[in-house]
Amino acid sequence: MAKVESFTLDHTKVKAPYVRLITVEKGQKGDEISNYDLRLVQPNVNAIPTAGLHTIEHLLAGLLRDRLDGVIDCSPFGCRTGFHLITWGRHSTTEVAKALKSSLEEIAYHTEWKDVQGTTIESCGNYRDHSLFSAKEWSKKILSEGISDDPFKRNVVD
Ligand SMILES: [Zn+2]
Question: Which of 10, 12, 78, 150 keeps 20 to 30 A from 120, CA to CA?
């Protein structure tokens, strides 16, 4: 079976919350796509409950696109400790960490339920499983710890 970089990371060595560049993939015509690990909580210590994670997902979909060029997708890890972010081109982990921080500040302190996109039976695959309360409380916790642009040492962005 193909070896996947994400599974070679020693999850006991990282210090969340952080942003890590996983890979830059190059297409046949030279286009580049970057894959980032947005780790919001410490692996095997915490996990964001599904309803809060689901609402954070719906909000980051819009908020990160407003703050970062070339966003293709941002989807939660099955372990519920963070998200994959896929973008066109390259961004520094500092730039991504700042965009993530600003997005979580928006969720924690400004977002209202009417701002959450895709919460109807037509627009979501599990519309009953959302919690803006949980999304806000977890965002506050992550912000209180700060977001590092390095997965192994704490280098929290402003
Ligand atoms: Zn959904």
Answer: 78
